[in-house]
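Lab meeting notes turned into a lecture example. A postdoc, R.K., suggested we walk through two folding results consecutively so the class can see how the record format repeats. The first protein's sequence and structure tokens come next.
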Amino acid sequence: SGSFTEGNLTVTRGNEVTIAVSHSGSGTLTIGGSEYGFNVTVDLGGSGTTEVVLDTRATTASDPAEFIDGGAATMHSPPLDEALEPERYLLRLEVDGVEQDLSTLTVEPRGETTAASFRAPESFAPAEYTGGGEDGDADVGPLEAAMSEGSTVARGDYAVIRFEESGLETALNESDLTGSAAANGLKLNFTQTDPGPNHAAREYVATDGGNVSVLPSFSNDRLYVLWNTSAVPIETQSGRNQYQATFALTDESGLVESETTLATTTFALRRASVSLEPTTGSVHQPWDNDTFVVTGQTNRVTGTTLEARLRGTGSNSFLELSDATINDDGSFETELDLSSVPLGTNATLWLRPYRSETAEQIHLVAPDPAIELEPQPVNGTS
């Protein structure tokens, strides 16, 4: 006896599919046939349940062991020029030479790939979330919580792309998206759209050394790409700071005959700007609250943390620190504690790491109390 455990199967072209069969003795699984241009048999030893995994993208290999796992495979048709085409393929199970069950494997076309632009704070560490998801996916929950929609990115923040895609999960090499054979034909690059006359366009390719990180979430048909912009030069002409991100397939993928763009999106890089209050010349009076409020505005992404510092030097040396987290509208507010700070001195207030842009001189006034008793008339004399 023998049967297909899950009946008819469906897979997106380029993905893997598991064909589970139960068999009472040694058997043979046939995928396709001569009429399909793809004819592979898989020997099933012994008895029990066997899971045969077929990688529909790698079917261009001449050795079926490169795309079949779970049994000894034999190719009875010529190697394919491209990955297994969308079609309904016959599955046949024989046990001890007798046909026991039939099923079908439907290979569906890949869906359209779309791209959306986001930003994430520089404090996010992509390497910490590799793995942790389903079937080896990255743990993308923290990234989704940290990122905010937008394509204008302050230098130092992450430019984030969320690709909605299908059929590429077996092709992804997270450390190489150059389009080469090692990258399985997947190509992703950020290219300067207008470098100016006599200048080559800057290009940042998704590799280990390109400041580009990849976090897959194939269980949700998503792929997240993060570009660290901290090392990207900012030019005075805003048009020189425009970059296009392009996700493409080359012929090395086995899915296309020539380089094909799947999706694009654009980013505008900007120099980080920060304003701070109170400003130079502000005075903190002795009767003011010991809580010193610092506010400001920035184009850094939501969730970025900046450190407010108040520094007194010389004989009145002190340093007070407090973190400020950026709100959705770019504003921030934090408080410094002055209860133990020596008064009667000037102090410098700034935001780290933007001292040159935000340094302000604040005067902390010391108390100088006095009581004045006016002459009072008593019985006609003073």
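The second example is placed directly after the first for contrast:
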Amino acid sequence: EYNRQGMKRFGINVDKAFGVNVPVMRKLAKRIGRNHDLALKLWESSYHEARHVATMIADPKLTTKTLLNNWVKDFNSWDIVDGSCSNLIRKTDHAYEMIPKWAKSNKEFVRRTAFSLIAYLAVHDKKRNDEEFLQFFPLIKKYSTDERNFVKKAVNWSLRQIGKRSSFLREHAIKLAEEIKMIDSRSAKWIANDALRELTNPKTFIRNNLK
């Protein structure tokens, strides 16, 4: 119960949560290993931690677009969004294809999924050409006006992570942030100012080995 209350303070939906922390879930998932059938059953249980473990043990190669769309519709908390993107969605063959579709959704956590996924791909997809991340700039600019907390934070996160990927993308991300800053929207201005604060900080270059 102590953990549940802590989760609640961080904006996590605990309606069907036991209060099990992430390290415990990861240890359990490691012991189970890949088990796609079990992942499907765990997800259907609708329990918060069961769904986290489901994303950890599901097989990315067996994860279809239909399954992703069904699971994304069930998202009801920012942590299950981010955990799913990190543990599973970014590793599937459908990740890039789903982003524009999910961004268009009016549902807060579905739209957050699109931008959380961009952020994780920018960090982890080392084989992708930097130029390909420019395709997400129109989406970032368009949805920078979404005032909902969990969306605007993810939009900001995606812009910062792209900018920290390389010196090439940093230059383009700063330019985009300056454009977003001119939009008449509190959310857009917050996103732009926060991104510029990090992307123009010399310490950011050192941490990310950017020249």
